[in-house]
Amino acid sequence: MSGTGTSDASAASTALLTDQYELTMLQAALRSGAAGRRSVFEVFARHLPHGRRYGVVAGPGRLLDALERFRFGRAELDFLADAHIVDEATLDYLRDYRFTGDIWGYAEGDCYFPGSPILVVEAPFADAVLLETLTLSILNHDCAIASAASRMVTAAAGRPLIEMGSRRTHEYAAVASARAAYVSGFDTTSNLEARRRYGVPSAGTSAHAFTLVHDSERHAFAAQLDALGNGTTLLVDTFDVARAVRTAVELAGPELGAVRIDSGDLPSVARQVRTLLDELGATNTRIVLTGDLDEYSIAALAAVPVDGYGVGTALVTGSGAPTAALVYKLVARADTDSDTAALRPMAKRSVGKPGRGGRKWAARRRGDNGKAVAEVITLAPPELGPNDRVLLQPLVRGGEVVGSRSTPQARERHRAALAELPAHALQLSRGYPAIPTVFEPNGD
């Protein structure tokens, strides 16, 4: 199971991780006869948050896991019946519910832009509509975290990053956040469930409480070194930083692995600590900074002699964008239940929230240098140029999962996707999407 995300800690049903209106729509559609109409739903973002230049697809692996457990067992059906949420006919339908349709999606780790159809679901209306809330809750969270994490990795410019936000979010959101951050290039997490479930490398040493529970800082350091070896990381800002560094090197010698600084004027303190470590002969001892860091503060530390960062609150809250603003919209439907019935484009006309009807395909247009120049969205399989690549990959076929759920593969994919973007895509300042989204043919 390690690294693949093949299951959660338990095999609990995911069927009630939904909004009630999904079931009331189902009940009404069963009565109207529209439940069996072949339909196409699409997940996309109308815009990127906070003027960012790209988004990162994360969560399809978790979604595929959740889809396999989207079953209405006795407990779920009894709850719905006792609460009078749906009628008997709907309960009968849900009793045998299995998703039987097809799903295509952008590969996890890829980048996306406004209008990118990052997930396409084709199935009878009743099958597909039930997946809306589950799909959006997973993708909106994971894409937001991965998008923020990617910017932090860029800001770190090769210095390692530790995800350590578990104490700043919901306990299970923490696990998903650690996975999403790893997909985008973070090196380790503090969260052990993320390691157990998804194979994300974990790390961790001690907090200020460990120092305070001992009779002195010297005793605390000695105990940690005795237990974990000289390669451990000692937290040196509980009292006086300079004195703590001297004590750490005196006890561990020049083989001390690292020191962590969690407070104060980080650039100034880090420079002083680097100078002191070098004077004491600990030239290979690393310096790790933590304490309310985000991509901007990380970028500001680029010229400071440090060796890594730990990020918590900003990471698990999407660094100001806790949702990716993804929506799940019906874009096409047939007029009958027949599998061969033609699909008609459908789109809402709400002011400020217009849609583009029709089942979409997507390709990334690239120049001769391999750099992306446009996101091309079409209403038929696209005619690819010699450097273009198809973006939608099969994830589910006939109700059976066929797509990848590998976290390491998603991590490698993101590295490649980011490398094909133009250089200005990596700027942290607000701006336009790195490449334009082109709809062919232009229109609804």
Describe this structure in words.
With 444 residues, the protein is an alpha/beta fold. Helices cover 35% and strands 18% of the residues. The strands form four sheets. Strands 13-12-1-5-3-17-18 form a seven-stranded antiparallel sheet. A six-stranded parallel sheet has the order 7-6-11-10-9-8. α11 packs parallel to α12. The longest helix has 25 residues, at 132-156. The chain is globular, with a radius of gyration of 25 Å. The two termini are 44 Å apart. Mean pLDDT is 94; it is low at 1-10.
Task: Tell me the layout of helices and strands.
Elements: H1 20-32, E1 38-45, E2 55-56, H2 60-68, H3 74-82, H4 88-95, E3 102-106, E4 111-112, E5 119-124, H5 125-129, H6 132-156, E6 161-163, H7 171-183, E7 188-189, H8 192-198, H9 208-213, H10 217-228, E8 233-235, H11 241-252, E9 258-261, H12 266-279, E10 286-289, H13 295-300, E11 308-311, H14 313-316, E12 326-333, E13 344-345, E14 361-366, E15 372-378, E16 389-390, E17 392-397, E18 400-401, H15 407-419, E19 437-440
Helix pairs in contact: 2-6, 3-4, 6-7, 7-8, 10-11, 11-12
Keywords:
seven-stranded antiparallel beta sheet; single chain; disordered N terminus; alpha/beta; six-stranded parallel beta sheet; 444 residues
